[in-house]
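Write out this protein's structure.
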Amino acid sequence: MNSPFSPASLADAHDGTVTGDLCLANATLVLPDRMVTGRVTVEAGVITAIDEGDHVPEGAVDCRGDHVTPGLVELHTDNLERHIEPRPSVDWPHMPALLAHDAELASTGITTVFDALRVGSIHDSKARYDAYARNLANELLAVRAAGHLKISHFLHLRAEICSETLLEEMAQFGPEDRVGIVSLMDHTPGQRQFRDLGALKTYVAKKRGMTDAEFVEHVANLKELQRLYGARHQAGAVTEAARYGAVLASHDDTTAAQVATSRANGVGFAEFPTTLEAAEACHAQGIAVMMGAPNLIRGGSHSGNVAAQELAEAGLLDIVSSDYVPSALLLSAFRLAAIWDDLPRAIACVSRNPARAAGLDDRGSLATGQRGDLLRMGLAGDVPLLRGVWSRGVRVS
């Protein structure tokens, strides 16, 4: 479906919320390096003061000791795709899908999101992936410019190296499109996330209903696409990311050699390295490591890759992404806090660290001058009970 909107003038448009004034007082403030009882004041959408003590000024919200943290920053979520296609081949109306996605993220404490859109299509008859990113991005940017969204949205282009049309689709985007991240994804069977062809077969058969013969043909087709286009697509995606002004991310690095290639490409952070070897190599090369919140909460990877907890315990985990469960992001911070006995460090993994990795220095911390993106929560044991979400000082959930 073609969008009637043009994104050409939308890069500097408003985030979709008015700015507000706010004071959350008598709270347990999770500052970058410590926790204190105090209050945070927001004026015109920006934090203007942080004061210690339990005093509740007139007009302030008495948090009664609840924790107050920065809003969460999400770098990689498939949630928007789930809303526009709630079941395979079911195309949901896009505007209500966009609004539902935005409201869901706000309800889980996410105040900045990089919506992941696939670029690179495959026209195989059974595992067909058609182009959709440009039209959906037009719709998202238009809804944002109209002021209908609760939280701050950027784009994350998932560049599928193993595809037929990657560079043609990437050419449709430009610096005006708020593309903040480009991730290099090579899902060729037999390596990275899908080293285990059995795990890939289970995943694809469930999603696409393939027979054994169709799966064999699918694997052969993907390997041929990688042979034909892999090197050109990877080099071209790196060039396009630079043209957009986007941060480059690697995806599913498995070996130190792959990490070295990522470093040579200018990668800033690594999404879901699959082995301890890759995570160690990332840190040695100055590449931040991101892992999935579901991996951390479930105690392991559903694909049999390295456990996020193992990387956390080794000091190799910098950023957490909700991946496919938005509500997992806040919960994952408290799981990390239990591992590290350090809530400020854990909260940084879902706020300041992802913001900085994406090149945003105006959010992610409880500090003066930062955006007034705030969460208030109680605790039921080690489970956070979200009681309020504010974006630029305006309550959104």
